[in-house]
Amino acid sequence: MADEPVFPKPRPKGSAYREPQPVPVLPEQTRKLVQRPEPPIEPRRVEISTEARALLTPVGDEQAYWAKQQFAARHPRITGAVLLVVSVFLAFPAVAMRLEGHRYGGRSGGFGAIFFMASLWLLGAGMPLETNGRPPSWWAAGMTTCTVVGAVVGIFLF
């Protein structure tokens, strides 16, 4: 008879397990609807300017971006010299392999050529800024041209 289960005695009525009680009903809370007068809606003033100065003036995030570019703007020739050194270290292995007769020079040659041309532009032209904090359009066109020429040279160094 050792295999028969033994159950504990039933608990008395006053035990920790009580009979379920009904959920208490709370009095309804009254809500007050507070209305405030709405301010009058002003019509939007849309001012469209066709002046070049108004169209090219940086606003918002773009203005903050140009305000952060202080080192390159204040020391463009130092930035150009550092970029020139970096470009020589990037392009040297590719140029050396091409001179030895290898067909491909690697990707670093392409980036080195782009950085080389950009650094030459910074060394030669500096980085003049207009009153709004951006470089003039001729400077941006020159930098773009140097970058494109560097990219074309870099393609041949690949």
Q: What is the C-alpha radius of gyration, as a whole number of Å?
A: 38 Å
In round numbers, the mean pLDDT is 76
Number of strand elements: 0
Quickly count the helices.
Answer: 6
Structural class: mainly alpha
Main sheet characteristics: none
What is the CA-CA span between the terminal residues? 91 Å
Portion of residues within helices: 40-55%
In short:
The chain has 158 residues and is an all-alpha fold. It has a domain at 75-157.
Annotate the secondary structure layout.
Elements: H1 52-56, H2 61-68, H3 70-74, H4 76-99, H5 107-125, H6 137-157
Note down, in words, how this protein is organized.
The chain has 158 residues and is mainly alpha-helical. It has a domain at 75-157. The protein is built from six helices and no strands. The chain is elongated, with a radius of gyration of 38 Å. The mean pLDDT is 76.
